[in-house]
Amino acid sequence: MLAKRIIPCLDVTDGRVVKGVNFVGLRDAGDPVEIARRYDQQGADELTFLDITASSDNRDLILHIIEAVAEQVFIPLTVGGGVRKVEDVRRLLNAGADKVGINTTAVTNPQVVEDAAGYFGSQAIVVAIDAKRVSQPGEAPRWQVFTHGGRNATGLDAVEWALEMQRRGAGEILLTSMDKDGTRSGFDLALTRAVSDAVQIPVIASGGVGKLQDLADGIKLGHADAVLAASIFHFGDHTVGEAKQLMREQGIEVRL
Amino acid sequence: MQIAVIDYGMGNLRSVMNALQQVAPDHTLTLTSDPAVIAAADKVVFPGQGAMRDCMRELTERGLREVVLDTASKKPFLGICVGAQLLFEMSEEGGNTPALGVFPGQVLRFPAERMQLEGERLKVPHMGWNEVHQTRAHPLWAGIPSGERFYFVHSYYMHTPDTSLIVGESAYPFAFTVAVARANIFATQFHPEKSHAAGLKLLSNFVAWNGVA
């Protein structure tokens, strides 16, 4: 049967992998090609690169990184960050990405999702949703979609938005909890489950992983199809292989 | 040796080229939409992504239909994903799209009412790593254990009444065909170019294959 996927995420800026908490205090975590190879050897099921380069001067560095990784690593590669036009999707795919993540642009110009899925197929389009809980304690939980790295509220309901993105041709949803991201306290499992149960397409849970059990919980309790994490793998705390062993012990089907 | 990868404008073929480069560094690899180059190649790879109806339209408009059918009748020929599905007679995708009809059978949508396993709802597309059970021996399976996982991403699956064509099956949740072969043709629903060591092994077996099953 189909295995649940573990996806290490590499935040890249100016050609280097970095990791910070809530986008501050970035630490250099190394050379992206070297890190990609290491995760590949550990048994990562896919890799996601998030380009957080601020300066447009250095935007093309990600293309060279993807080219180099794609020549050496033969698992699916997703690249997101700064995708504004269908042409940006094309450039990343041509560099060797298999899927392209669209986040802020999906909100500001959802037609880009529809057009890109039409040109390249839904399998190539991942819509990234950053969500923050907006319900009060005691109320039925609700989450709102935020853009621009979590700074701008959109007024959109996260579950409704995921359904809308599915309708427009997204092949997959990368769902990040802004409340949990960087806290190392586990996924927002209620959010993950609400979105994953609502849509037909696969959902990748993201934001908050601090220990291996969090990954297993994302699958079992959050109903995610894949789990994404960065810091627990970057600094050698844990390997992808250890994560898979633990998941398998808990009855989750994984690729070993 | 010349290996032609057929480019008919459907999807990104960079991954296929990268993986072939890795396993066939001494061969000439050409990504091409030129029927003459395809006709002159020793081996042909026929990939495909995206919607079936668009794939058929592009093949026809680019004048590639004949050369695909011709090479599929005589040279070592590897179909991948939609490139495998196109070999059948028809696909439910896009409202019963006629395909190339090299093999008997249809390409069917995973039926929503059957996508359940032990209380869990199964997502469509079928995306990720699934076990491929080899239903019979074939030179392209050499050195790959039955049950090895390969990477998939698709919402439609191949279904043929001619069970002698089937060389690989997976389950989601029911058993379905993921690899077919006849004479000089081998075709997979999964993506060997994205399937790590097992995928590279299959591609390397294709590069070494003389086209005799």
TrEMBL record, chain A:
Record-level Gene Ontology MF annotations: imidazoleglycerol-phosphate synthase activity; lyase activity
Gene3D superfamilies: Aldolase class I
Residue positions of the active site: D11, D130
Keywords annotated in UniProt: Amino-acid biosynthesis, Cytoplasm, Histidine biosynthesis, Lyase
Localization per Swiss-Prot or TrEMBL: Cytoplasm
Position of the signal peptide: none
Family, similarity comment: Belongs to the HisA/HisF family.
Classification via NCBIfam families: hisF
Protein name: Imidazole glycerol phosphate synthase subunit HisF
Organism this protein belongs to: Chitinimonas taiwanensis DSM 18899
TrEMBL record, chain B:
GO CC term, one of those recorded: cytoplasm
Subcellular location: Cytoplasm
Active site: C81 (nucleophile), H191, E193
Record GO biological process: L-histidine biosynthetic process
InterPro entries: Class_I_gatase-like, GATASE, Imidazole-glycPsynth_HisH
Pathway named in the protein's UniProt entry: Amino-acid biosynthesis; L-histidine biosynthesis; L-histidine from 5-phospho-alpha-D-ribose 1-diphosphate: step 5/9
Boundaries of every Glutamine amidotransferase domain copy: 5-207
EC number of this enzyme: 4.3.2.10, 3.5.1.2
PROSITE patterns: GATASE_TYPE_1
Keyword list, A-Z: Amino-acid biosynthesis, Cytoplasm, Glutamine amidotransferase, Histidine biosynthesis, Hydrolase, Lyase
GO molecular function: glutaminase activity; imidazoleglycerol-phosphate synthase activity; lyase activity
HAMAP family given in the database record: HisH (MF_00278)
Complex formation: Heterodimer of HisH and HisF.
Its biological purpose: IGPS catalyzes the conversion of PRFAR and glutamine to IGP, AICAR and glutamate. The HisH subunit catalyzes the hydrolysis of glutamine to glutamate and ammonia as part of the synthesis of IGP and AICAR. The resulting ammonia molecule is channeled to the active site of HisF.
Name of the featured protein: Imidazole glycerol phosphate synthase subunit HisH
Record gene name: hisH
